[in-house]
From TrEMBL:
Keyword Transport found: no
E.C. number: 3.6.1.27
Function: Catalyzes the dephosphorylation of undecaprenyl diphosphate (UPP). Confers resistance to bacitracin.
Organism: Gracilibacillus xinjiangensis
Residues spanning the membrane: 44-63, 91-110, 122-140, 189-209, 221-240, 252-269
The protein's name: Undecaprenyl-diphosphatase
Entry keyword set: Antibiotic resistance, Cell membrane, Cell shape, Cell wall biogenesis/degradation, Hydrolase, Membrane, Peptidoglycan synthesis, Transmembrane, Transmembrane helix
Encoding gene per record: uppP
């Protein structure tokens, strides 16, 4: 019976990660909350990295056509200076530029920030901050397409993403807010945000491989980890599809309401 309860707990954790990763309500914050509710002690970040990688795979599946197009056109521009491919080449450069700030912060201070701020009270406060940020951009309708972006836009979005190293600050929320504040259309903001997620998540995963291997729970909890991984992958796929629909309809305000409610409940009762 106890083993079944553990499987259910990790299934729920994978579901929580998968649903909350793409939508602007903070997956890291929700994992902190649910681990507290389930009484699961966090030993490092190996579990979060593990299920985050599942979310990464789901994002790769959804944006596979964009990724293939960018790679092909980027190579065309480098090799043949194909002017029609320049826009996609620039888009790649902007993604690289936007990745640098969070890469630097993550390498230098990521563990310290995560350990210091991974408690429910902090998450409650940061969820309220996320709510305010999402509320600010709820009605924005930008004009910039992929080919209209600039280095300045990439830097601003990259700096916005660094805030999300704090549990409770949504990474997707931070980058979508940054993207829309610089004038991107919703579709472009979504694409830039989640293509930006790929190098960040992949880089984090590679850096944390030693921690995952040395995780004291990996042997005894291998099956629960696998269940959480598969659940996270499936949930992320459908949650991201749902977010695309939500943004197209201009209903981001509901995520703001949600973060306010959960943030207040966490501050008062956890």
């Amino acid at each position: 019976m106890e083993e079944l309860i553990i499987l259910i707990k990790y299934f729920v954790l994978g579901l929580v990660q998968g649903i909350t990763e793409p939508i602007p309500i903070s997956s890291s914050g929700h994992l902190v909350i649910f681990r507290e509710l389930f009484g699961i002690k966090a030993e490092g970040l190996s579990f979060e990295i593990f299920v985050n990688f599942a979310s990464l795979l789901a994002v790769l599946v959804i944006y596979r056509n964009d990724i293939v197009r960018l790679v092909i056109n980027g190579a065309k521009y480098i090799g043949k200076k194909d002017t029609e491919a320049k826009s996609d080449f620039n888009f790649i450069i902007y993604l690289i530029i936007a990745t640098i700030p969070v890469g630097v912060i993550g390498v230098l201070f990521g563990d310290e920030i995560g350990d210091a701020l991974s408690n429910t009270k902090v998450v409650g406060i940061t969820l309220l901050i996320t709510a305010i940020a999402v509320w600010v951009i709820r009605n924005l309708r930008g004009r910039k397409n992929d080919g209209d972006l600039s280095i300045k836009d990439a830097i601003i979005v990259g700096l916005a993403q660094t805030v999300a190293v704090t549990p409770g600050i949504s990474r997707s929320g931070a980058t979508i807010v940054g993207s829309m504040l610089v004038g991107m259309k919703q579709e472009t903001a979504l694409r830039f945000s989640f293509l930006l997620y790929i190098p960040v998540s992949l880089g984090t995963g590679l850096l944390e491989i030693p921690e995952i291997i040395s995780d004291p729970n990996i042997d005894t909890l291998l099956i629960p980890y696998i269940i959480a991984f598969l659940t996270s992958f499936i949930a992320t796929y459908f949650a991201l599809k749902w977010l695309m629909n939500i943004m197209a309809k201009g209903n981001l305000k509901y995520f703001s309401y949600y973060c306010v409610i959960v943030g207040i409940l966490v501050i008062l009762f956890m």
